[in-house]
Structure formats: C-alpha cells, structure tokens
Amino acid sequence: MDISNAFLHRDLDEEVFMVLPPGFQSDRPNQVCKLTRSLYGLKQASRQWNAKLTSALLSVGFRQSNADPSLFTRDSNDKFIALLVYVNDILVASGNMTLIQGLKDMLNTAFKIKDLGVVSYFLGIEAKLSSDGLNLCQRKYALEILSDAGFLECKLARTPMVPGSVLTRGVGTPLEDPGCYRRLVGRLLYLTATRPDIAYVVHHLSQFVSSHTDVHMVAAHRVLRYIKGSPGQGLFYPAATTLSLKVFSDSDWASCPETRRSITGFCIFLGASLISWRSKKQPIVSRSSSEAEYRALATTACELQWLHTLLHDLHVLMSGPAIVFCNNKSAIAISENFVFHERTKHIEIDCHVVRERVAQGLIKLLSVSSLNQIADGLTKPLSAPLFHGFVSKLGVQDLHNPTYRGGGVLEE
What are the percentages of helix, strand and coil residues in the chain, rounded to 5? Predict the structure, then answer.
C-alpha cells in the first residue's frame, strides 16, 4: 500500500513560520505564514508523519517491535498480521485475507491509501511469489546501473574482483570527476540488498570514496562486468523449509595492507534461506588469527541476538540453539573456556559476549573446514571455481535466465 500526501496528515507540536509562497501578494511588509499542519520540506515532517501513523496503528491493537521500529504486529485468537513501514510505503503480510482487508479499511478511513495489490515491486526490489517460495531481485535497478555507466554491451567477468588483488590508497591517477566513483559505489551498495555475492568487493571499494583513483574505478567497472552476466540474480526463499538458524562466521586476519585490520564475514540462514550477511573491517588490529576469528564470532553473536528478538516479535520460536560454524578451533576453545589466560588478557570484555551466549544456550559452536566455510567469500576475493561454489551455497536464483541481451565472452 501507498499513502497519499503522507506528510500533510500530521499537526505540528511547535510553532513554525515560513516566508510567503511565490505569487502571494501582500500590502504589509515582512509578513510570514504560521503553519497549522505539517508540510513537505520541513525538517519535522517525516518524524511527525511517523508519529501519526504509529499512533493510529497502536490504537487498533498493533505492537511496535523493539528490534525494528518499522515493524508492527498484531496477534489475536491465533490470527496474526504483520506490517512493515518505510515512510509512506507499507507491506502487509497475513495468512488471513479478512485481517488484511480490515487493516486497509482502517487506514483508508484515517488516511487516503492506494491499494497496490500483491507485492511485485518495492523500493527497487522485485518480488516474485509462487507456490515454491519467494524470489527477490533487483534486475531493473542493476540494468539501470549498467546503462548509466555504458556497460550494457561489455564483456563479462567470471568474478567481481581479481583473485589476490589488493587495493590501496595513493596508487594510480586521481579522477577528473570524483563524483562518478562515489555515485557508482553508492548505487552498488544498495544492490547488495539482494546480491550477497558482491558484498565483499563493494565493501572494499567503499573504503576509497574519499581518495580514489583510476585503479579503483577499473575495479568498480569489473563489478559491473560481473553483474552484466546475471543482472536478475537474487535471493530465493523456499516455502518449505525448517525454522532453525545455521550460521557461518569467518575472518581474514590482517588482510588490510595499510591498517593491518582483519575482515569479518558472516552469513545466517533460516533453514535454507539466507536472511543476514555482513562483510566489514574490524575496528582494531588483532594480534592473532584466533583473536580475529573470536571478534568475528562476537559480531555474529550480537546479530543472532537481534535476530532472535525479531523472530520472537514475528512469533517464530526457535526449538534449539543457533548452530555457528567456525573454521578456527582456537577461537572455539576461547569461547567455551571460561578461564582467562595470557592469550585472552588483551581481548576487550565486549568480545566475551560469545561466552555468555554459549552459556545461555543461544548458540552452539561447531568446527568446519575452510573448504566448507561459506562465509569465506565475504572476507576475501576468491578464484573462479571457489567463488562459484560460494555463490551456489548462498541460495541465490536467477528467474531471468538467459542473461540480458544474450551471453558474452567470459574473462578471468
């Protein structure tokens, strides 16, 4: 659903004055208008609208999620309905169409809404619902990026980044138009909402938005040549799956040549569905690979804690602890050993959240070989065979195969 003129529905809590609008004639000088309603362009407008909508939903029995304030749920007599808000765009989900229709009538009475039917396109994300499950992709958005950059007819690349390559500052010639690199990286960042396969390289490229050169632009163009091979690739959520959390956590120790910081990577599956992933540089330097892996586990544990709260608000109850796979046995030993010793004295207290979550039964740590570590592709550029194995395990799907404008020549 979409709410028309959302920002005009809320009264102001404070006095706001504005200059006379263009074309308004007055005989008295220095006159201003006092606003009695919210108006587009006001700094308060979005917050006032959110307060208005929240108040309307809470008044009819909805509960605002503590994990995500944009999520509202209502459960009565085993009838559950969930509502997700982004400014004036609303997604509603329920197994009972009567509840959805009742919500539409209520919102249409309080505000004027547009009923857009079954979700097919939302915030640039295409949704395809079938009996097998839900597919999310950003094909139209990806093709717009390729078209604006002039890469619709480019040669294809098998991987988004050259294996073993390392980008640094100060190498290459500064660009004449620095804004073009920033715009491209910004658009690629939004594309990672349904493309976890490019999460690492886009994270790496975003570190150079303030000091980029032609070398960084060439690396960004390789991402476009990779996307050209499968612009419709996206996430697939099967309808038949188990409601258990399976997690892969990994770290690439001291991989940044300038700061010697490590990269954290994790991916979280609900059954066979990938629901959360991250590729991010750690805030401080780790003294060993075990410490780097332990910090990655701490970040993963915090994400799992948030997901448990969110799933609880959605009335999804976990039957057991989340299974966390880590390929560093030393980090697992630190997490399960409650005795401080020389190897852990220098590690900050907040990292030991992993021990607490293990003791609480929220997570269970298991060792996995590096070959089967799915999160490895979120910490470093992989060779083509390893990268395609990584992508195949993410649960992605391309509904628009064959690729746009046919195939192309693959380059290493």
Answer: 35, 25, 40
Residue 127 CA to residue 234 CA, distance in Å, equals 10
Q: Which of 117, 134, 150 lies at the terminal end of a domain, its last residue?
A: 117
pLDDT: which is higher, 367 or 33: 367
pLDDT in tens, 237-250: 998 888 899 999 99
92 burial via Cβ count (<10 Å: 0-12, 13-18, 19+)? middle
Residue 53 is assigned to a structural domain of this protein: yes
Query: The pTM is what?
Result: 0.87
Q: What are the tens digits of pLDDT across the range 203-213? A: 999 999 988 89
Q: Nearest 5 degrees, angle CA 313-CA 361-CA 317?
A: 25
Q: Which helix (H) or strand (E) holds 251?
A: strand 245-252
Q: Distance (Å, rounded) from C-alpha 100 to C-alpha 110?
A: 16
Determine how many CB atoms are found less than 10 A away from the CB of residue 176: 7
Structure tokens at 118: 């079954």
Domains in the chain: how many in total? Answer: 2
Confidence at 375, pLDDT banded by 50, 70, 90:
very high
User: 333 lies in which domain range?
Assistant: 241-377
CA distance linking residue 173 with residue 178, whole number of Å? 11
Task: Tell me the pLDDT band of 340, cut-offs 50, 70 and 90.
Answer: low
Helices (H), 285-365: 289-313, 329-336, 353-360
Model confidence at 344, pLDDT cuts 50, 70, 90, reads low
Q: Cβ(81)–Cβ(93) under 8 Å?
A: yes
Asked if residue 149 belongs to a domain, the reply is no
DSSP 377: G
